[in-house]
Amino acid sequence: MVETLIDFMLGPFRSISQFYFEYQLIFNSIVIGVGLVKMFSKKKESTN
């Protein structure tokens, strides 16, 4: 039932979600890394 709901809600994006779920650890690491870089770069700019 869950698969049917996901197919209905995502439609053509289902293949993209499959790719994301396979490489979720890599994508999440990249997102967290970018967030940390932006957070620390803003702190350095505000102290000057």
SSE layout:
Elements: H1 2-10, H2 14-22, H3 24-47
Which structural class should the secondary elements be placed in? mainly alpha
Write the H/E string, N to C.
Answer: HHH
Q: How much of the residues is beta strand, in percent?
A: under 5%
Low-confidence spans: none
Largest sheet data: none
Would you count the extended β strands for me?
A: 0
Q: Please report the distance between the alpha carbons of the first and last residues.
A: 56 Å
Mean pLDDT: 82
Please report the number of helical segments.
Answer: 3
Overall 3D shape: elongated
Output the radius of gyration: 17 Å
Relative helix content: over 70%
Keywords: Membrane, Transmembrane, Transmembrane helix
Transmembrane segments: 20-40
Summarize the structure.
The radius of gyration is 17 Å and the shape is elongated. The chain is 88% helix and 0% strand. With 48 residues, the chain is mostly helical.
What does this entry look like structurally?
There is one protein chain. The chain has 48 residues and is mainly alpha-helical. Helix content is 88%, strand content 0%. The chain is elongated, with a radius of gyration of 17 Å. The N and C termini lie far apart (56 Å). The model has no long low-confidence stretch (mean pLDDT 82).
